[in-house]
């Protein structure tokens, strides 16, 4: 496209455009983050895109956007937008200039509905949305290599949940774009301010536009930071369009101003920041392009407009709803006309007259048909349509026998009101609202005294609702309250409830269920969604008296082989339960040995939980004693008696007590035993089960040592037997040959007697010395033993 073609239009490029381009000059656009519905985190992303019209633009479709976390640039989400609505042409004030330069631009809208979880988007540093694409216009004069310079569109938004609560948030909204151009050396202004749906403060500032981060032909979603565009020498954020003054923006209103001193196509960017209570919430970055042209020194048209058939100096016109007026501009066949309402160019409104039916501020822009010069702007005519919002609203409700409804219409000055019920005038009702208590069809008539316009509101039909049927029941179907319990009650017939017991309102009881811990007379008031009330019939809840349960003690038994016995408890009619219980008897044989918990349960009423008394039936084991029949020791020894027991014995009795340190201990000691003795031990457990056992202790005075033995395998005296040595468990025996060498040595206790062999070889007949150590404190016994073969 030639550079001269590009220098005929102001191009507004708003960041956050999400439509992929391929050699299509993307003129501009904007993105909006709009909260929808009542569900926190539900948003509609609306992308408005401007393209140079043509086949390439027709092929543009939705593309990808990304959401990232500010703190660490972590990607949170990617999503696609799709086109909605019909594409429209951008309207120019001077169509001749646009056609001469072949300037045709279209606007397309793309949308995506998102559900963002506020708990996920709760980082205090907030989040941002970005989209990157390529292809600016090659004719841009203040950028280096503009054709290969791309866009990064950017919108930041705050955490959607703060202090555990979802916060309301929507991004700023901006008006439609009008086609304009800048005349060199002439003052120029452009209303770029937006509005914020949440009432947040908007602050505007000039910044450097952002380039794309990736260089591919297909748009991608990548996190920040994003690079700046490269300015030509002498240009910058505060000098994007040279002028006196250069391009500036009002920080509060967003009004752009410049008196350009240089021809060309110039890119710049504006940052729009949102503040709430002095704290920044987010921002939107927007790119612009202004074309500065040399306007011919022709006379600027100065159109005058008036309302036909009205005084020529009338600047404000009141129209009755449904009527119209015709606004006429100075007629000149050499002029182009473009009408505006509230600063926005109206489509197909390019004649010298305009029929108006809507409220607004109307102006007309006029330019020569055959020249590109300054555009003349008319004065403003304000049109006020009277009565178009005469809508009847209602608050309140007519219940079955009570209730009122407040009806109201548009509140305005200079209006006379009349009210009708079933088309019959209600005498004396002349204000903008009325309270009614009857069914019927209601409407209001409005007469505007200044204009004489009469308007009739819509008709509302009011009817009484059916009576609220309050119900109150016990969820169990039984109106008795068991001891130490609560009874759930169920309400019906409303959306809110008032509970009373014995004539007193129960504080905090407002839902359909209430669990009462006490008896009494209950009454329920049910309130439906319209505030209508109904009262239930009384419900009497009777407390069930508690019962006292007694369970007689149960004697313990020794072992399971005993007869079953009868259990006793009161009051009658209850139920016994537990191991070994059969009806009202306890069988130790069935239960087995152990401590068995038994219960006796009596219900105060069939629907109530039983009152329980408990006992333990003890089937005790019969004790057992593991004690050797006999023991051997030596005279004067102290011998520990350590039987093993079963059956949990707790009493011990040794008889006779002779030599014993404690005859009542489980493991006493026989101290300094002097002679043979037999002990009888009797034990018993807690239940009284007993058993007994005996042990005989043989006391040896010394060891008897034979002088000889004959290990000849004849079964007689084949080993050297030392009688009584078993009484000395620590005894050791050593045998030597005639040279004093050890040929045999026993373990303690002489458990393996000497057999006349050494190293597995029979020793020859002869005399062999020996030693015998019985006790550590006793002298060593020495002697000789003869081996006879």
Automatic annotation (TrEMBL):
Write down the Gene3D superfamilies for this protein, in alphabetical order.
Answer: Immunoglobulins (2.60.40.10)
Query: By its UniProt entry, which InterPro entries does this protein fall under?
Result: Ig-like_fold, T9SS_type_B
Its signal peptide is 1-23
Top-rank taxon: Bacteria
Task: Kindly state which keywords UniProt assigns to this record, in alphabetical order.
Answer: Signal
Name by which UniProt lists this protein: Gliding motility-associated-like protein
Q: Which organism is it from?
A: Spirosoma utsteinense
